[in-house]
TrEMBL record:
UniProt keyword Transport, yes or no: no
Entries under Pfam families matching the protein: Sortase
NCBIfam families: class_E_sortase, sortase_fam
Keywords per UniProt: Hydrolase, Membrane, Transmembrane, Transmembrane helix
SUPFAM superfamilies in alphabetical order: Sortase
Catalytic residues, chain numbering: 123 (proton donor/acceptor), 192 (acyl-thioester intermediate)
CDD domains: Sortase_E
Organism (species): Streptomyces genisteinicus
Protein name from the UniProt record: Class E sortase
InterPro entries: Sortase (IPR005754), Sortase_Class_E (IPR053465), Sortase_dom-sf (IPR023365), Sortase_E (IPR042003)
Membrane-spanning parts: 12-36
Amino acid sequence: MARARGRIAGAISVFGELLITAGVVLGLFVVYSLWWTNVLADREASAQGDRMRDGWQSTGPGELDTKDGIGFLHVPAMDEGEVLVKKGTDTKALNKGIAGYYTDPIASALPWDAEGNFTLAAHRDGHGAKFHNIHRIRNGDPIVFETKDTWYVYKVYKTLPKTSKYNVDVLQPVPEESGKKTPGRYITLTTCTPVYTSDFRYIVWGELTRTEKVDAKRTPPAELG
């Protein structure tokens, strides 16, 4: 009987050690997913952003170098600094610490287009998590998009904290789900929700209020302080 109890105790001890090991491994994976991927993504996005700004200095007036991006998104309420914007919203692209504009299922308009919806996506956790604080955005807050020669200033007018990830109507050129009925110049931010899941989507809509030419010192518009 004593030997049997000893074997059981030994088995329990081994099982406990395995649980501890599994917990450590899981913890390391969480650290990798939620911290280290941010470090790597931010590093890569910063390098790409620097290349794009260098390209702006070497290309002619009005030219856009889309190889490294089309510009920078600034959302003071999210407090994420400038966010590089590039073409595409597939996982491989967004994992590089950027925001991407949609090409599918509904192609995004671009800020300089006469009308349409500039639709963007970014991760909410891991890989830069550029839209992590999207829940802080309120109606009336500014969203500013910076290109080589123009600041595009939008004003938030509607948020949708939860919708199906299959709801593509939020990307329509006229986002009627936001209450708009006529063509205009809109911007839409999309990301996963709740945090650390991808079950639903969080949506923010804004409308262009004005543009401002970039001066020689790249002085930010008043909305960016």
